[in-house]
Write a structure and sequence with these properties.
This protein is mainly α and 125 residues long. It has five helices and no strands. It has helices at residues 6-11, 18-46, 52-60, 62-90, 94-123.
């Protein structure tokens, strides 16, 4: 006779409760994205009609570059966490699940690297 609830057995998380950590990571990244998305929306509205050089000047400002990098990196991490949930919940085959998780992480890392590289080129590093 086990003291585990049926839900706990179905989730298979054991005593580590690793699902709680994932849940909180998703919530923390979502809350962090709120002010960053607001900043991005206000900035984008301010750049309407600006020239290409004006946008580059905007991103050349260190504060704007750091906020943009934070938005991209936190957004990609939030995306990885969300897609990981979808993959784990809805892909039944372990091999295909592993492949999709690999694609998820690889895509996010490649996009993060390209975004940071582009920002560094704009800033002049």
């Amino acid at each position: 006779m086990s003291l585990e609830t049926p839900l706990h057995k179905a989730q298979g998380m054991g005593s580590a409760h690793s699902g709680v950590s994932h849940f909180w990571k998703q919530r923390v990244t979502a809350v962090a994205l709120l002010p960053l998305a607001l900043w991005l929306a206000i900035s984008a509205l301010g750049l309407i009609g600006a020239s290409y050089a004006g946008v580059l000047t905007f991103l050349n400002n260190p504060v704007n570059a750091v906020l943009m990098a934070a938005f991209v990196l936190i957004g990609l991490y939030h995306m990885v966490l969300g897609l990981q949930e979808v993959i784990l919940d809805y892909v039944p085959h372990p091999g295909f699940r592993f492949f999709l998780m690999l694609v998820n992480y690889t895509f996010a890392i490649a996009l993060a690297a390209a975004s940071i590289f582009a920002l560094l080129r704009i800033v002049g590093f």
